[in-house]
Amino acid sequence: MESKITYFETAGKNNTDEVMAIAKARAKELNIKSAVVASYRGYTAEKAVRALDGLNIVIVGGFSHPTMVNLQESFDEGDESLVRSKASVLIATHLFSGMSRALRKKYSSSSPEEIVAQALRMIGVGVKVAIESVIMAADAGLVRTDEDVLALGGTRKGADAAIVVRPVNSQDLFDLKVKEILCKPSNW
User: Fold this and answer.
1) How far is residue 48 from each of residues 18, 144, 153, 162, 184, measured CA to CA in Å?
2) If you write DSSP's letter for every residue of 132-153 in order, what string do you get?
3) Residue 46 in contact with residue 79, Cβ under 8 Å?
4) Cα gap 44→79, rounded to integer Å
5) Shortest CA distance to 74 belongs to which of 87, 89, 86, 85?
6) How many CB atoms neighbour CB 146 within 10 A?
7) pTM exceeding 0.85
8) Would you say residue 66 has pLDDT above 90?
9) Domain range annotation of the chain
């Protein structure tokens, strides 16, 4: 099998429209039914519901420590009513953060979650975010673990990475399969 990977020269928001186009085309080719999209302020969420129409879209926004301010900011850059009408929305603590940050803050030590997150960042921040988001969506029961899905993530704002992945629940992290990297930045 031969497949194409698009590498962006830079990371960030400026790649969002191209990521959406690449993801939509590959979803059609592979008959993928669901897409998990990381979006913390709503910009990427709105882009996704417009570009990936026809897919089951799950928007994942996460925080290291949820506060009322964080939750209110979840859609300060996107049309919240449009997104909620076309997608499932999950706002939760980051998979690789919650307890691990508590350990680091209290005992000045790293945790297995932080080591995994740092290892995934070597591939790219957007890829790490996509993997984290798809596991969070699986844990919430918003995507199936027996079929491939698209997962989109980004570096800071917007989307700059898309992968085809077979989701798992968090307790099965090391069984997760990244089937294809569709696009990612070469510099981040």
Assistant:
1) 11, 19, 11, 12, 17
2) HHHHHHHHTTSS-SSS-EEEEE
3) yes
4) 10
5) 89
6) 6
7) yes
8) no
9) 6-185
